[in-house]
Amino acid sequence: MDINESDFLSKLGNKTKEIRINSDISLEELSRLSSIDVDTLKAIEAGAISVDLMDFVSIAKSLNVPPSTLVEFTK
Q: Phi/psi at 41 (nearest 5 deg)?
């Protein structure tokens, strides 16, 4: 896959937000479940920051999806 960092972070953020919304989980609830600050989650969903590996795993677990699901992007 030929993708730059900015595109990757944007796609990761979009996928995370899509799964969260489809799961009817608010940012506040995801924050509580994942122990990640709401502002950090907003930045992740906006593709504005990189995600620490353990935060990445925590987000996936909190959304009840395998971590690989967050990086399965449709071309």
A: -60, -40
CATH of domain 5-65: 1.10.260.40
The total of other beta-carbon atoms located within 10 Å of residue 39's CB is 10
* Residue bearing tokens 């930045």: 43
pLDDT tens digit string along 18-38?
A: 999 999 999 999 999 999 999
Take residue 49 and report the two structure tokens written for it.
């920051």
Q: Are 15 and 74 in contact (CB under 8 A)?
A: no
Q: Which residues, in sequence order, are CB contacts of 55 under 8 Å at separation 6+?
A: 34, 36, 40, 44
Whether pTM exceeds 0.85: yes
Residue type, 45: E
Residue 70, H or E segment: none
